[in-house]
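Team,

Forwarding the record for the chain on the shared tracking sheet. I've put the sequence and predicted structure together so nobody has to dig through attachments.
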Amino acid sequence: MRERARLAAALAFNGLAVLAEILWMVLYPGRLVPEVLRWYTYLNNFLGLSVSLVFVVFAFRELLGHGSVPHFVRVLRWISCTGLALTFLTVVFLLAPLAGPDGYGKLMFSGPLLFVHTVCPLLSLIPFLCFERSCAEPGSAWYRDLPLAVAPTGLYILVSVTMNLTRTWHGPYPFLYVYEQPWYASVLWLLFFASAASGTALGLRAVSRLHKS
């Protein structure tokens, strides 16, 4: 596919992601309360909205012949897609199965969760994986880049665990119930999600490197 066509496709998907993020906020304004900031899902969607909007602006400028999408924007896309991919995978392989027989229907295809768990992550991930130029600089080492991609997840883990330890929050996810499970279970969950975030980021980066820089 020619470069301009790839860029146009990336622009279109990111534009649709922005519209989908705005749509769920319009349809479900009751979710826009301070408590929503406790949820990793919504924080990632807010970040995804912001970054996709920035990408759309620079991609449109590039199509008009005014420069190119800066490297820092491509890195921001990697960071936001890491969180959205981890959200999607966690729902598919962990939260939905734990939610019972109708877990997938409730968590992936109902109300605002249709958008924040399914539609918005996919609309953001498809262009990153298929159309956008690489987020990795030629010759860059993965171990230097990785902390950038996992920083939001690490910050969320740090804040949410601290808030649960001080009993300011309860959850919101079952694996954050630090007083309702053995201490080693909490440690294992934290190690699992740190590893999952790292693996997701590196997987996305590897696919991104297949694209022409």
